[in-house]
Amino acid sequence: MPQPFVLFDNVCKYYQMGETRIAASDHVSFEIEKGEFCVILGPSGAGKTTLFNLLLGLYEPTSGEIAVDGTPLTAANRRAWQNRIGYVSQRLFHTDGTFAANVAPGVPDAEIDRRRVTEALEAAQLGEFIASLPLGIDTPVGECGSRLSGGQRQRIGIARALYRRADVLFFDEATSALDSRTEGEINRSIAAIAARNPGLTLLVIAHRETSLEYCDRIITLEK
After folding, report:
1. Is 199 exposed, middle or buried (0-12, 13-18, 19+ CB in 10 A)?
2. Cα atoms in the 13 Å half-sphere on the side-chain side of 124
3. Which of 199, 117, 205 is nearest to 162 (CA)?
4. N or C: lower Cβ tally within 10 Å for the chain?
5. Strands (DSSP E) along the chain, which ranges?
6. Does the pLDDT at position 187 exceed 70?
7. How far apart are CA 110 and CA 215, in angstroms?
8. Which phi and psi (to 5°) does residue 75 adopt?
9. Strands 63-68 and 71-72, how do they pair?
């Protein structure tokens, strides 16, 4: 029987607050298949962010097991897993450099793959906007992305993840600070990326139910 791509098996994560032990994730189990577009829902305090941090390898479970491709996620293989991941949050850092530098942060200018940058921006539905700029991908975005709208800043975050050619994209309430119209546009962009990349797995923490019409499956956490 084939192994699921990601297995979350009876995972618990506890924090010690003085003499009190608080469950941030309590006996959670689910499977994710490669290529699925899953939305994670739950009330505030249900452990959605903790679950993401566990999947990202930032936390270790107190008990239970997380496995990828049938192999338990451990300190020995955590970095290899993280190299396969793209992460988009609601608070994205932007330098005052160019679009290219922000899509490929930390990469020296001479080593940036400009074709990949352009492809990533097009996939994030910024291609038409970039083409309208005299300097294209060499256009500065302003300090902390000040020349961009909230939706454009989020699209750069998506392009950044796509530039890395990640196997899995995590969206941690990436649209929560946007108005409903822009949020809908970003959700459609994410759905289009999923449709064009059938092997790409997408996991989205959603605070509103507008993402649900696009996803393959909903994982609901109870408080």
Report:
1. exposed
2. 26
3. 117
4. N
5. 6-17, 20-32, 37-41, 63-68, 71-72, 85-89, 168-172, 201-205, 217-220
6. yes
7. 38
8. -60, -30
9. antiparallel
**138 close to 102: Cβ distance less than 8 angstroms:** no
Cβ neighbours, 10 Å, residue 77: 13
What's the one-letter identity of residue 41? L
Q: Which residue type does 193 have?
A: I
Q: What pLDDT band is residue 23 in, cutting at 50, 70 and 90?
A: low
> Which amino acid does the sequence have at 146?
S
160 Cβ contact partners less than 8 Å away, ≥ 6 residues apart: 86, 88, 102, 103, 104, 105, 120
What's the pLDDT tens digit per position in 123-176?
888 999 999 999 999 999 988 788 888 888 888 988 998 898 888 989 887 666
Q: What is d(CA 60, CA 75) in angstroms, rounded to the nearest whole number?
A: 9
Query: Tokens for 192?
Result: 């289009």
Q: Hey, what are 162's tokens?
A: 């796509």
Per DSSP, the chain holds a count of helices (H) and strands (E) of 7, 9
Query: Is residue 88 a contact partner of residue 174, using CB atoms and an 8 Å limit?
Result: yes
Report the candidate in 87, 109, 91 with the shortest Cα–Cα distance to residue 100: 109
**pTM as predicted:** 0.82
- Measuring CA to CA, which residue among 51, 106, 56, 59 is closest to residue 81? 56
Q: What is the DSSP string of 140-168?
A: B--GGGTTS-HHHHHHHHHHHHHHTT-SE
For residue 196, what are its two tokens? Answer: 């064009």
